[in-house]
């Protein structure tokens, strides 16, 4: 006899999916910004160019990643 899967409403699935996507995007942005900060710290830069550059790059990557996940059919 097969066990029935519990019914999970679509609203809950959507909420979990989109909140997870938000956390993933925050992790991408935070990770790249931290990496840029550490490179600037290591090189003793007065102008925080690596932090700024990695931050902008991470936002672009996060937007592309988020868009791909939003357009993916499930």
Automatic annotation (TrEMBL):
Provide this UniProt record's keywords sorted from A to Z. Membrane, Transmembrane, Transmembrane helix
Ranges annotated as spanning the membrane: 21-37, 49-67
Protein known as: AtpZ/AtpI family protein
Record organism: Draconibacterium aestuarii
Q: What is the lineage of its organism?
A: Bacteria, Pseudomonadati, Bacteroidota, Bacteroidia, Marinilabiliales
